[in-house]
Amino acid sequence: MKIPEHLAIIMDGNRRWAKEQNLSNVTEGHRVGADRLEEIVSECGRLGVKYLTVYTFSTENFKRVASELKMLFDLFVDFAVNKRQKLIDEGVKVKLLGRLELFPEVVMKAMEKLISDTGVGSGLTLSLCFGYGGRAEIVDACQKIIRAGVKAEEVTEELFDRYLYTAGMPEVDAMVRTGGATRVSNFLPWQISYAEMFFVDKYWPEFTKEELHKVLEEFEERERRFGK
Question: Looking at residue 92, what is its pLDDT?
C-alpha cells in the first residue's frame, strides 16, 4: 500500500457523538476521542507513516464554556502523563505546534515533559496542534522573518517554510476530517496546499483503524499531479 509520509487529521465530532450516545456529559466524548487517537497513532506507526499531525485544540476553542475547558485541560494532562510510556515504547516523538503559553501552567508543564521525554523517539513524529490557528502561524512566521532582518527580495516559499511551526517537516500528503463537515477550519492552510482531502461522515470516536485503512486505500488509488 502507498502510505502518505505526512498525514494530517481534524478530529471532529466528539461532542456530537457523546450526545447521540446519550451520555450524561458530552465532554466524555473527548475522553473517548483521546483513546481513539492512541489507537490511530499506533496504527500509523505500524504502517510506516512518518508524520501525523492532529488538530488538538484551536485558538477559537478557548471560547468554549469554562466547565468544558477545565475538562479538556484535565484531559490534556491525563494524556501527557498516562500515554507517555506507550508513546516512548513505540518510538513516537511528540511535538507541539501552536501557542502553548496560552494554556494554564499545569498543562504547559505536562506537555513540556511529554515533549522532552519523547524527544529521542526515532519512529513516528506526532505533532499536536495546540492553541493553533493557521492564520496565526503565518502571522508568526512573518514576524520572525522581519525580526531576522530578511530582505524582501530574499523571501521565497522555501525560506518562508523554514519559519513555520512545521519547519523541517514535509508537506501534508493527505488530510482527513471526521464528523461530516467539508471545510478545513484554519488547519495548516500552507501545508495542505497539495494534500489529498478526505471528508469522513463518521465522528472521531468512531474512526477506528479500519476506517483509517479505507482512507489509505483510497489515497493509494488517487493520482497526484501537483499541477502537471
Answer: 98
Residue 135 backbone dihedrals phi, psi, to 5 degrees: -65, -40
Residue of 22, 61, 82, 117 marked catalytic: 61
Please give the domain boundaries of the chain with CATH numbers for all domains: 6-134+172-221 (3.40.1180.10)
Give the residues of the chain that fall short of pLDDT 50.
none
Gyration radius (Cα) of the chain, Å: 18
Q: How many CA atoms are closer than 13 Å to the CA of 182, on its beta-carbon side? A: 0
- Fill in the DSSP letter of residue 171: P
pLDDT in tens, 161-209: 999 999 999 999 999 999 999 999 999 999 999 999 999 999 999 999 9
Check if 61 is active-site: yes
What type of residue is 83? K
